[in-house]
Each structure stands twice: as C-alpha cells, then as structure tokens.
Amino acid sequence: MIMRKTSIVILLVGIVLGGFGFLYYSTNNVRILKVELKSPDNSALKEDIHISLSTPSSLKIEYWKKGDPVKYSSPVTNKKVDHVVHLLLLEPNTTYEYRIVIDNWINKSTDIFSFETREASSWMVHEWIKEDKPHDKTALGDGLVMLCYRGYPGYIAMVDGEGTVRWYWQAEKLGVRLATITPRNTILALLAPARKDEFKKVKNNDKPDVASYYLRTGRIGFVGGTEIAEIDLEGNVLWQTNLEEKEIVFHHDLRMTEDSRIMSIYRDYKLYDLPDTQSELDTLWGDGVMIMDTLGNVTDKWSAWNVWDIASDERIKEYSGDRFHFNSVALDAEGDYLLSTPIENQIWKVDSHTGEIVWKLGKGGDFEMDSSAYFHFQHAAHINKDGDLMLFDNGDFSPNDTSKVNKLSRSLSFKLDTINMKAELQMETVLPKEYYTSRMGSTFLMPNEHILQTISKTGVTVISDQNGKVLWTLNSHFIPYKAEYVPSTVWNQYFKIEN
Asked: What is the residue range of the signal peptide feature (predicted)?
C-alpha cells in the first residue's frame, strides 16, 4: 500500500504499489523491487525518487502537475540496480503524477502514480507579485530570477514569473550577501554575519554627496563577506571557505571564471602619511581584485594602491576610508578586469597581467562620449550578450545642489572603439521615477531582449523592454542587492520538457 509518513517517505516494497497491483515485469525480467519517495530537508520544492531493480537497467521518470498538459522527463540514468532521480523546481502544495520508464530495447512504463508536495515554508509565503503592479509572467520567458536575503537566517531563492518560489537554499548561521550561477551550473555564494557592516560616521549637519554618504570603512566594510560556498542545484554545499580565518574580506561581487577559479573584490589598505593629520602614518582603505582556487588558496591578486598616485590625489583625505569603492568586477574578452568605481563615476579596464589601468570610461575618462551618457554611482558593469559594456546607472544624486538632483535610474550599454577611443551609446533604458535607486542595483540583458533590473532601495526587481516600459515587477520583503537571471538551460542535467 502507498503510505506517506510524517517524515515524507513513501515506501513501496516488492511488486505491490498502492492498489495498482503488479508493477512491472519485462521480457528481460527487470522487476521494480522498491520505490521510495523522500523530500530532502522536508522541502516542498524537490522530491527524490529511489528505485531498486532486480536487474541492472537504465530508467527515467516522466512527471507532470496533475491536470497540466506540460510534461517533464528526467535524463536517462546509467545502467545499474539502484537509482536516485532528483525532481527539482516543484511547486508547493501541489499534486504531481509520474511514471517510471525502464529504458531497454523496448521501453516499458509503469502505471501512473502520484505524490503531493508539502506546503511552502512560512518565510516563502509572501506577496511576491502585486496585482496592481505590472506582472506579465511571459516577460521572464522560461527562466527564473535568483535573489538573496542577507539577514538571518540568510537564503537564496529562485522565483518564477508567477511569483512562486521554485528553488531555495538556506544558510545555517549566516546571511547571504549575493549569489551567482557558475560556468559549471552551480551556485557561488558570499556569506556574512547580519548587520556587521561598518559605515563612515556622518555628522547631523553634514550634507554629503552620494559618494561620501555611502562610504564603507574598516576591514569588513559594506556588503563584506566572511565565507564563500559553492552549492549544487540539489542544495548540497560542495565546499566552503572561511575568509575571516585568512584575514580576507570579499565584497560586492563574486564570480567563477571559466577555469573554475574564484574572483572577487577584496579590501586592501595602505599606510601613508597624510598631511595635516595627527598620526604619523594613516591607514588608507581601498580595494583590489583577488583570485582564489576552490580550496581557498590565493593564486593571484591586484591592488589599486599599486598603481595609484596618492600624492596627486586631491580627494585622498576625504575618501581615505574607502577610496575606490569598487562594486563590480568582470572579465572582458581579453581576460582583463572591468571594475566599476562609483566614487569616480567610471569603469576601469585593468590589465590582469601587468596590473596597469588600460583605460577609464565615464566623465573625465579616456573615451570621447556624449555627456548625456555620463553615469553616476553605477553598478554591475559587465560585457552583455551583444558584446557591449553594460552597466546600471543609479543616477545623479547631489543633495548639496538640489537643482541638479535627477532621481532617475537607467541601464546603459556602450560599444567601445578602443582604437579611436570613442564610446558609442547602444542602449539607454530609463526607468520610471518610482523605480529610482540611489545605491546598489543591477542590470542584465536577457535572451529575449528584455532587461532584468534590480531596484534595491525599493525592494523590487523589474523586467522592462528597452524603451523602459516595465512589464513585470517582483516585490520582495527585503532589500535585494542584485537579482540574477537563471536560464532554463541550467537544469538540463535534471529534466527536459517533453512537449
């Protein structure tokens, strides 16, 4: 008989499965001896089906939501006796039907059976989609949106176009600062204790500009992480490295390169005698790029202090606690670093071999460009799928001069002519005023040509067309640092759509 116990386990022994009687017997004498269903971690979103056969054979699972015409199929397993098939991206509190297909000269399938997923965990029950906001689910295509909660307990969630959480992973003791999909279809996450950021103290009478207002300070800084972890799509931690023990702080960005190395921005300091200060030597805080292997060994690093002319820097005293505030790092086609430095309102290209700054893009930079394309306190600079440099322009924020306040955020992309040093604006997607965010945020050009943008300060993620029309809005109950698009191809090793 089929019985779902409180531990979410169904045990089917022998050739009896529920009231369906004889389960399966082929001309090759392959019998299903046992079928066991388990929900790992009591999850509502995934189910493992354990199958034991009498004779080594390959198999697959065909499954679907009851009453839904869309059917899924797991990959065919290797030929063996004991099999575990992982069903992922399930919907909570939903009945699924399935059958086991023995892959042989002549495929044979069982009768149709069913299981029901658990109700969603309480933290997932939230008005992710608001009916009074744009919510065209087709705007997302067949992908998901991944975002992170950096409070405690921290988690990573993937949400579909209808606002249903389809995948999640929860940290045991830390918050999740940010997460990204790696080239090997795993998740790389930056973890940190909640509320451990250090900010520059601002006096009540001060009216700082955006740069000094959002400065971090000290070793941990802002959006600093103390651990990194790689997590597979089944939610297993493959490895975890404690950065704090190595006296390293990663912040703002984290990526895995094509050769499976870890790249991030790290906090670095320099001792320097600033004029008109009481101390003989002052500690200047800045940033660099660090490369680490998955065992936690540092294989390469670059520091901005090694190429920075401190003596000629007129702002070094004001920004001594956070001179560069790098908030994103990416590789270009040549394998060089692309760094966003919002204090300078520029993107820098740094030669990853020599460490020299090759060029600067933005106001006061090396490229000829229209002044209307200057960006301010930008984030998420990267090369998009069209080969253009793309970034999220937070927008001009100048509280000292209210006549110049332009509270609009936008996504920009540039085609760079590095021979004639000209930057041609390819895309300018200006968001409506209600989606302005003075800090954080990200942008990504999706496969369907729509743009996924994170409006961190207001706690929303939007998909717009390239004219800035908002098509879809995801409402979170926290401030997402950045959301990432997860394409359906990530799941190819787990399932495919049959129809």
From this structure: none
Predicted confidence (pLDDT) per residue in 485-498, tens digit: 999 999 999 999 88
pLDDT score recorded for residue 193:
84
Residue 236 identity (one-letter amino acid): N
Residues 6+ apart with CB under 8 A from 263: 254, 255, 256, 257, 289, 290, 291, 292, 329, 331
Please list the residues that pair with 84 across neighbouring strands: 50
What is the rounded CA–CA span in Å between residue 12 and residue 113?
A: 12
Between CA 87 and CA 4 the distance in angstroms is: 17
Cα–Cα distance measured from residue 476 to residue 428, given in angstroms and rounded to the nearest whole number: 26
How far is CA 179 from its chain centroid?
Answer: 4
Instruction: Report residue 405's pLDDT band, with 50, 70 and 90 as the boundaries.
Output: low
Tell me how far apart the 2 most distant CA atoms of the chain are, in Å: 91
Tokens of 229: 């972890």
* The dihedral sign for the CA sequence 244, 250, 255, 257: negative
Cα–Cα distance for residue pair 181/484, rounded to 1 Å: 8
Whose CA is closest to 391, among 380, 401, 402? 380
> What are the extents of the domains in the chain?
9-116, 122-493
Instruction: Name the DSSP class of 415.
Output: E
**Statement: residue 401 has pLDDT above 90:** no
Instruction: Report the C-alpha gap between 459 and 136 in whole angstroms.
Output: 19
From residue 356, give the alpha-carbon distance in Å to each of 21, 268, 350.
73, 17, 6
Phi/psi zone of residue 494: left (φ > 0), alpha (ψ -120 to 50 degrees), beta?
Answer: alpha
- The percent of residues above 90 in pLDDT, for the chain, comes to 73
Q: What is the CA radius of gyration of the chain?
A: 26
- Look up the CATH superfamily of 9-116: Immunoglobulins (2.60.40.10)
Q: Is CATH 2.130.10.10 correct for 122-493?
A: yes
CA torsion, ordered 333, 291, 483, 213, to nearest 10 deg: -110
Strands in 384-439 per DSSP E: 389-393, 410-417, 422-430
CB atoms within 10 A of CB 246: 12
pLDDT at residue 374 is higher than 90: yes
Which is more confidently placed, 61 or 8? 61
281-322 pLDDT tens trace:
888 999 999 999 999 999 999 999 999 999 999 999 888 888
